[in-house]
């Protein structure tokens, strides 16, 4: 795991974003609609609901024995809850997938997304992001001994597995246009498909693939990362608090 910023810094940045978050108050009233102070609204409901992955080892993985979700994204969410509400146990978690995370935020099901989510210009049209808290890059996971050594080997007739709603699924079509892409709902399904021989390689962020390679030693990352995937915490757009104010707040 490289380039992990200090948790304190991440927490500060993310808190600043969350101060602008439009969450539902305890009476179900939308903070955005009422234009009341959003931070006050979060304090009012006395909890924060984070959309997280539950099948992504190292970032958000449900521990079957305890039932707890564990990982770097979870630690960040807890730190945000601690900073805003004084108690990390006031962070609540809801499972999201790459496809469901933005709709769930827009619906008000969650207050923020902390789910291996890359900051992109396209997504910035729909949500607001914190600063970068982790730098990943897209890569390939293959069975050890595979003939696929790098993205150049994904030619005609090769099959790549990816997850719906991910940048990885879009990028691979550009970077390996001759390969066919098979999409799945989540990373558990995609890895299961790789193990059952449904594809030659699974593609997503190296950070996620390291978790899979760690879980099953018959699989390994191959080639160099071929994209930049900077992760950010996402919150609802169009909050009353301006971006300018957020920048000022981040220097407090
Ligand atoms: N970071 C990439 C994305 O946001 C891939 C990982 C994911 O699917 O969450 O799409």
Topology:
Elements: H1 7-18, H2 31-34, H3 38-45, E1 48-52, E2 55-56, E3 60-62, E4 69-70, H4 72-85, E5 91-95, H5 101-107, E6 112-113, H6 121-124, E7 127-129, E8 134-136, E9 138-143, E10 159-163, H7 167-175, E11 180-184, H8 187-195, E12 201-205, H9 206-215, E13 219-222, E14 229-231, E15 234-236, H10 243-250
Parallel strand pairs: 1-5, 1-6, 10-11, 10-12
Antiparallel strand pairs: 2-3, 3-4, 7-15, 8-14, 9-12, 9-13
Helix pairs in contact: 1-4, 1-10
The chain binds glutamic acid.
What does this structure look like?
By secondary structure, this protein is α/β, with parallel strands linked by helices. It is 34% helix and 22% strand. It is built from ten helices and 15 strands. The chain has helices spanning 7-18, 31-34, 38-45, 72-85, 101-107, 121-124, 167-175, 187-195, 206-215, 243-250; strands at residues 48-52, 55-56, 60-62, 69-70, 91-95, 112-113, 127-129, 134-136, 138-143, 159-163, 180-184, 201-205, 219-222, 229-231, 234-236. The protein has a five-stranded mixed β-sheet with strand order 11-10-12-9-13, with helices on both faces. Strands 5-1-6 form a three-stranded parallel β-sheet, sandwiched between helices. Strands 2-3-4 form a three-stranded antiparallel β-sheet. A hairpin with a 6-residue loop joins strand 3 (60-62) and strand 4 (69-70). The longest helix has 14 residues, at 72-85. It starts with 6 loop residues before the first helix and ends with a helix. Residues 1-16, 18-36 and 240-252 have low confidence and may be disordered. The chain binds glutamic acid. Glutamic acid binds at residues 98, 115-118, 163, 166-168, 204-205, 208, 229.
């Amino acid at each position: 795991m490289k380039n992990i910023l200090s948790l304190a810094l991440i927490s500060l940045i993310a808190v600043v974003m969350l101060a602008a978050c439009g969450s539902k108050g305890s009476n179900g009233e939308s903070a955005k609609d009422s234009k009341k102070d959003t931070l006050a609204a979060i304090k009012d409901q006395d909890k924060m609901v984070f959309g997280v992955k539950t099948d992504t080892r190292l970032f958000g993985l449900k521990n079957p024995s305890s039932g707890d979700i564990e990982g770097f994204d979870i630690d960040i969410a807890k730190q945000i809850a601690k900073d805003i509400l004084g108690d990390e146990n006031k962070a609540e978690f809801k499972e999201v997938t790459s496809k469901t995370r933005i709709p769930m935020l827009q619906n008000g099901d969650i207050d923020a997304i902390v789910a291996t989510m890359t900051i992109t210009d396209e997504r910035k049209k729909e949500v607001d992001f914190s600063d970068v808290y982790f730098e990943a890059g897209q890569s390939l996971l293959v069975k050890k001994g595979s003939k696929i050594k790098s993205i150049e080997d994904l030619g005609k007739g090769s099959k790549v597995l990816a997850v719906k709603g991910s940048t990885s699924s879009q990028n691979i079509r550009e970077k390996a246009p001759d390969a066919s892409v098979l999409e799945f709902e989540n990373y558990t399904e995609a890895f299961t498909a790789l193990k059952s021989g449904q594809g030659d390689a699974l593609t997503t962020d190296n950070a996620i693939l390291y978790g899979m390679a760690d879980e099953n030693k018959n699989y390994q990352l191959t080639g160099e990362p071929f994209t930049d995937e900077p992760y950010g915490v996402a919150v609802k757009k169009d909050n009353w608090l301006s971006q300018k104010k957020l920048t000022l707040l981040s220097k407090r």
